[in-house]
Write a structure and sequence with these properties.
Elements lengths: L4 E6 L2 H11 L3 E8 L2 E7 L8 E6 L3 H12 L5 E4 L3 H10 L3 E9 L2 E7 L5 E6 L1
Parallel strand pairs: 1-4, 5-8
Antiparallel strand pairs: 2-3, 3-4, 6-7, 7-8
């Protein structure tokens, strides 16, 4: 068994697709109509056959509440790995991404957190 898709709740699929592709640099893999929503996934440009991130609508009341509460408590919804966190922080900040935590060393890891503008905090980590 292996992980092939993971998901993140988003408030607006179009806005999320724009942010994750244009600001972060992910590549759209799937964009298929499913009822009133779409099955939209993005992948790393370096691993286009790798794990997909599903931009899942938070239409269900439980999803909205979960997303709202973890955001309010400052809990990242997911984590992305980076090779050079200082370089990635600069690239993203220069691209208009708003960080809630600048790169900070935590033991053997360095982490930073940003707002994805779609209801989530996202953590990047350099091991």
């Amino acid at each position: 068994m292996k992980i092939i898709i993971t998901s993140i709740f988003v408030q607006d699929q179009d806005k999320a697709l724009e942010f994750y592709s244009e600001k972060l640099g992910f590549v759209k893999k799937e964009d298929v109509p499913v009822g009133k929503f779409r099955w939209i996934t993005v992948v790393s440009p370096d691993e286009q056959d790798g794990i997909e991130l599903l931009l899942e609508p938070n239409d269900h009341p439980a999803a909205k509440e979960y997303q709202r509460k973890i955001f309010a408590d400052g809990i990242p919804a997911t984590m992305f790995g980076v090779a050079d966190i200082q370089q990635e922080y600069k690239r993203l900040a220069d691209n208009g991404v708003k960080f809630t935590m600048k790169p900070t060393q935590m033991g053997q890891l360095t982490i930073a957190v940003f707002d994805d503008t779609c209801g989530n905090l996202i953590q990047i980590v350099q091991k």
